[in-house]
Known about the structure:
Blueprint: H1 23-26, H2 29-38, E1 40-42, H3 53-56, H4 65-68, E2 86-88, E3 109-111, E4 132-134, E5 155-157, E6 178-180
Parallel strand pairs: 1-2, 2-3, 3-4, 4-5, 5-6
Organism: Bos mutus grunniens
Protein name: Leucine rich repeat containing 40
InterPro entries: Leu-rich_rpt, Leu-rich_rpt_typical-subtyp, LRR_dom_sf, LRR_domain-containing, LRR_R13L4/SHOC2-like
Amino acid sequence: MSRLKGIAGRDTRAGFRTESRDCSACVPQGLLKAARKSGQLNLSGRNLSEVPQCVWRINVDIPEEANQNLSFNASERWWEQTDLTKLIISNNKLQSLTDDLRLLPALTVLDIHDNQLTSLPSAIRELENLQKLNVSHNKLKILPEEITNLRNLKGLYLQHNELTCIPEGFEQLNNLEDLKCILLINKFIQL
């Protein structure tokens, strides 16, 4: 009986919370909640040096509101969340993206312009639904070969980077309608 005294004041669900507490400092819970409903998340201009783990895991982890409202009659039906399809993390200080990007396979729009990215993760190949990729105004020197796997890509924005070549197989991106990269001032692009 004495062993149970210490447990009485604790939240028994605490061990099941998967969202990190430090995430709320840079991404308000209300913003994540709205993103789960709309499928869109805009984190532009938040001075981020890295993408918080809760963003990558938004469709994987059980949301915080699930711990507060366990009623099936609730108007907030967290279990009916929408997959994230649009992620905007432009105008930040990102230098890299992790392979956790693969946790957002439903993305159709990824806008990461105006950061300090020097490369893209190979996990980008898993974003098979991606239709628009904006990586303009970064410090990219090369594009990963995996970018050629994005067969649904319609818009690719590469201007104002430090690109010197385009990966082999680039011509396989048959759906590409809007390519803004070749107009690089004083840059030689090897095709």
